[in-house]
Design a protein that fits this description.
Its EC number is 2.4.1.57. This protein has 414 residues and is of the alpha/beta class. The chain contains 15 helices and 13 strands. The longest helix is centred in the last third of the chain and has 21 residues.
Length: 414
Amino acid sequence: MSDQPHIFMDVSRLLSRARNPIPTGIDRVEYEYARYLLEHEAHRLTFVAFHPVGVIASVNNSAVRDFLDVMGPVWDGDAGLRARLPRMAQRLTQTVLLSAWTMPVYREQSVYLLVSHHHLTRPHAIEQFLSRHGSLFVPMVHDLIPIEFPEYARPGEPERHARRMAAVARLAAGVIVPARAVARSLAPYLQGRPAERHVHAVPHGLHLHLSGQGSGTLRLPRDGRPYFVCLGTIEPRKNHLLLLNLWRRMVEETGARGPRLILVGRRGWENENVLDMLERCPALQGNVLEYNDLSDPEVVTLLRESAGLLFPSFAEGFGLPLAEALVLGVPVICSDIPVFYEVAGCNAVYLDPTDGPAWRAAIEKRLEQERDAGTHAERSMRLNLFDWSRQVAEGIKMVDRTAAFFHGQGLHGR
């Protein structure tokens, strides 16, 4: 349609993450938006990226497609392709400087779409791009956790995130968020700003491979013991200590007759207490297992064969593990925080993340249900939930509606 704006989609985060074979949630969001636009909106798409010298300019769409064609299989466990990604990302980043001089000024309606928080602390580069091309700015804000819960953030991160939100408030025409809970957190920053009336909650989709186990790093003891999964970076906000203390007590009381706990995720920051327990607590050895580098298919295999997902986090912007469990039909015990109710509705058991006895009771009840139903009972998968194509399409509709409003008012980018 002629009235649709041109979309400048930023892929800076994907280029910066080329050396990481395991994606984060935000990595996956940027990948899926880029993929969708290539497949469905290529006629009005230009990929752009940020160069560390402080400029944003175009990168070749075909080269980005080739990059994504390698990145996807790497994330799915193809170790043989890993070495190619950093070289491809370096070449793409180098072309940004050249295109900064040669990229023509875009003179039609356009939107600059940034679905990560990458370079929001460099607002001058964003403002220059908007001003040059007359574009509207639509970013995605994933959460405000570093500001709301500074005790769980790395040193300096609350201040950096406050600068990001200040840039969003000053420059954005509209904002995509993954949940209404994030929209409520963002609202005070947007009061009186152009984007205040154009904040749209679009839940993330999921990327689930259901057919196989992947590259083979998943090695579980085959002794028939049931297990629970806790999925997420090992950091204080995820509340692993609650589970580790519960497991120590259960092992001391029941020995090897109880369930195992499997932690899946990278080791994060300020987690010394958790690591001390994992490495030095005798009761946890062999009863709590840790996996730091599982591919997406391996995580799916692990979840599907588990007794349930345990998610005692203190704060989340969305909660991808919760959505994954819902789609796979895996039972969930999670924190009673607003965003989890928004994602799971009545399909989870909600508990105070500080109430250890309640968590133990819920875990024991889940084990009883598992025994009554039979080991690895067949579970129904709700594959219609959190479909990436549908979710990205909703995000792009929001972009188009925002652009139509501002262009209808005769307002353009900076």
